[in-house]
Amino acid sequence: MPPIAAGPEIERLIQLLARLPGLGPRSARRAALFLIKKRELIMAPLAAALQTAIEKIEVCRICGNIDTQNPCTVCTDPKRDGAALVVVADVADLWALERAHAINARYHVLGGTLSPLDGIGPDDLSIDALIKRASAPEVTEVILALSATVDGQSTAHYITDLLHEAQEKGQLKVTRLAHGVPVGGELDYLDEGTLAAAIRSRTPF
Ligand code: ZN
């Protein structure tokens, strides 16, 4: 145990900050010191914002997004294309796609991916609710925006199998994100798997 340089309140603040993703003990100390120095300017508004978040933030009962209204802003936005349903593993993925202004559709958050090693099966994810939503007449496309990892892709296959019947009848198109060269990426630096996927998913110029 290193010697303690501050009172228990400050140590507790540092310990809590150190639990945040991306912050280790050293950066947690720096963050705590920064907050303490900017007590009025940053710390007090941050504490108030955290309190509001605790009181108001809910998980959307339709899509699984996190928002201060339920159903969430995306689900209640009348300008969204209700025909396409973008399936993501996590709220972070939904927010990433929204930041990219990639698509003006609705979402479905699974709450993770299938992972036998971690003991995560279909019942642990919001898959039943997705199949129900996908069967609505206005939905014509399910876009599987899942990670290009073994777990992400096995989850995509599992969902595709469940939607097989609707696809056969021609009522529903199931698509997935393209795999390939990232924007600004140099071919020489790519791994073989990505290069092979990019060649396989080539598109007309
Ligand atoms: Zn929602």
Your description of this structure?
The chain is built from 9 helices and 6 strands, in the order H-H-H-E-E-H-E-H-E-H-E-H-H-E-H. By secondary structure, it is an alpha/beta fold. It has 2 domains: 8-56, Helicase, Ruva Protein, domain 3; 66-200, Dna Topoisomerase Vi A Subunit, Chain: A, domain 2, CATH 3.40.1360.10. The strands form 2 sheets. Strands 4-3-5-6 form a 4-stranded parallel β-sheet. Strands 1-2 form a two-stranded antiparallel ribbon. Strand 3, helix 5 and strand 4 (105-109) form a beta-alpha-beta unit. The radius of gyration is 22 Å and the shape is globular. The mean pLDDT is 92. Zinc ion is lined by residues 60, 62-63, 65, 71-72, 74-75.
Comma- or semicolon-separated keywords:
205 residues; alpha/beta; Helicase, Ruva Protein, domain 3; Dna Topoisomerase Vi A Subunit, Chain: A, domain 2; 2 domains; two-stranded antiparallel ribbon; 6 strands; 12% strand
Principal-axes geometry comes out as globular
Q: What order do the helices and strands follow?
A: HHHEEHEHEHEHHEH
CATH class of the largest domain: Alpha Beta
Query: Uncertain regions: pLDDT < 50 for 5+ in a row?
Result: none
In short:
Helices cover 43% and strands 12% of the residues.
Give the SSE layout.
Blueprint: H1 8-17, H2 25-37, H3 39-56, E1 58-59, E2 66-67, H4 73-76, E3 81-88, H5 91-99, E4 105-109, H6 127-134, E5 141-144, H7 150-162, H8 164-168, E6 173-176, H9 192-200
Parallel strand pairs: 3-4, 3-5, 5-6
Antiparallel strand pairs: 1-2
Helix pairs in contact: 1-2
